[in-house]
Specification:
- The chain is of the alpha/beta class and 342 residues long.
- Helix content is 15%, strand content 27%.
- The protein has three domains: 86 residues, 3-Layer(aba) Sandwich (Udp-n-acetylmuramoylalanyl-d-glutamate--2,6- Diaminopimelate Ligase, Chain: A, domain 1); 207 residues, Hexapeptide repeat proteins (UDP N-Acetylglucosamine Acyltransferase, domain 1, 3 Solenoid); 25 residues.
- It contains four helices and 39 strands.
- Strand 38 and strand 39 form a beta hairpin.
Length: 342
Amino acid sequence: MKKTLSEIASHVKGKVFGDPGVIIENIRGIDEAREGDLTFVANPKYLKSLETTEASAILVSPGVERADKNLIVVDDPYVALGQVLGVFYPEDHDPPKASRGTLIEEGATVSQDARVYPGAFIGRGAKVERGVVIYPGVYIGRDVAIGEYSILYPNVVVLRRCIIGKRVILHPGVVVGSDGFGFARPAQENIKIPQVGFVQIDDDVEVGANTTIDRGTIDKTWVKRGVKIDNLVQVAHNVVIGEYSVIVSQVGISGSTRLGKGVILGGQAGLVGHIQLGDHVMVGAQSGVHEDVPSGQVVSGSPHLPHKKWLRVVASLAQLPEMRKSLSSILERLEKLEKEAK
């Protein structure tokens, strides 16, 4: 594909500084880019690479100036990059014309505009809307609803009665609606409590590979609009994740915990059950959250602390050997003085 710089600028609502007729054929990183490539600078630490890049043009933020470079100035270069990548490298979701081997049970409703690859299973009572793409090995259980233009990549499993909204992306190996981990008399008899709820995933959610989202015990586990979940995340039964939250890889969220809007959980963070995190809470990587966190707080560590306090605690750890030595010396002197005083 070839686009002029002015065409690209129009698509991303940016302003060209330089030659608007420059032809762009590829998008590459700033160090790898060559003539004919478009690159970007989203992080100020890469501004120095403007000196050496061979790219034909660069997406930059307002205030960046280079008379010897062709620039497209946009409010957010990273967002603009995403828009341009979608134009230059569109993903082909069209299945082969002969889609044999797909099993659709009687009573399922599949839009004629949906694209279903061979090897998929769609259960009775399921409803698949227009524009949905279902790849090989996908299992859609009975009475499941899949909203318009959602994409289910290979080996996704959506079990009975779960609801998937519009424009949802489920990456390979995602399991939606497995039983929640509910047992009475744990470590004694381990009596299984039937999990009869469901999972609701709202519009514009993306879930990374091999993430699991358990169904509610009685009611629902709810992932709200615009949430982005990374690979290898565990969401337990009856969890609620607020709009536009971001959950990074290997996070574990225990049952009935509720996250507000715009919450960010760093990689490998663990949350105990039955707590609430307010809107726009940020949790550092590998943190252990054991109680409610009010809106707007930033916490880190295990058990979690306010982030700035945790930084002071961590900074002091390296000093503990010297502090221990000093304390021992002080105690010896104190004992000596006490003996002399007698």
